[in-house]
Design brief:
Layout: E1 2-8, H1 20-23, H2 28-38, E2 42-48, H3 52-62, E3 68-72, H4 81-89, E4 94-98, E5 120-123, H5 128-138
Parallel strand pairs: 1-2, 1-3, 3-4, 4-5
The structure holds 1,3,4-trihydroxy-5-OXO-cyclohexanecarboxylic acid.
Length: 140
């Protein structure tokens, strides 16, 4: 069975109530149930943290044994050299995802420290970005 780790960064625990015009009305927990039902033959694990170091710890933990990581690092995308280095330090492919189309938003969201270290990026498809990333990993 393939094992895929989903990691959500800061403020993504508030999906469903946080800026619904940008991120929608669904909680990640509700979406995660839907997502798991689409991939009954995949072990999909979910982790969320508002703390940069805990995201790095999780990347180290799964980064040599899993089949892929789906990472939405939230605002750390635009600031974190440490998360980018963690992605480079592990062997498991990481897909960067964003719910919103960051390129349609403020200028500071146009740059990602992570993209260069990631296998690929999926941006702007709402929560379906996660499903697209899982599909991509399953094709590796
Ligand atoms: C986000 C985009 C980031 O710019 C923002 O800081 C987030 C969410 C997205 O999924 O669209 O927290 O990663």
């Amino acid at each position: 069975m393939k094992r895929i780790q989903i990691i959500n960064g800061p403020n993504l625990n508030l999906l469903g109530t946080r800026e619904p015009a940008v991120y929608g009305n669904l909680t990640f927990e509700a979406y995660y149930i839907e997502l798991k039902s689409k991939f009954p033959d995949v072990e999909l694990d979910y982790f969320q943290s508002n703390t940069e170091g805990f995201i790095i710890d999780k990347l180290h933990e799964v980064g040599f044994t899993y089949d892929g990581v789906v990472l939405n690092a939230g605002a750390y995308t635009h600031t974190s050299i440490a998360i980018a280095d963690a992605i480079r330090a592990i062997t498991v492919p990481v897909i960067e995802v964003h719910i919103s189309n960051v390129f349609k938003r403020e200028e500071f969201r146009h740059h990602s420290y992570l993209s260069e270290a990631c296998k690929g990026c999926i941006v702007g498809f709402g929560l379906d970005s996660y499903r697209l990333a899982v599909d991509a990993i399953l094709k590796f």
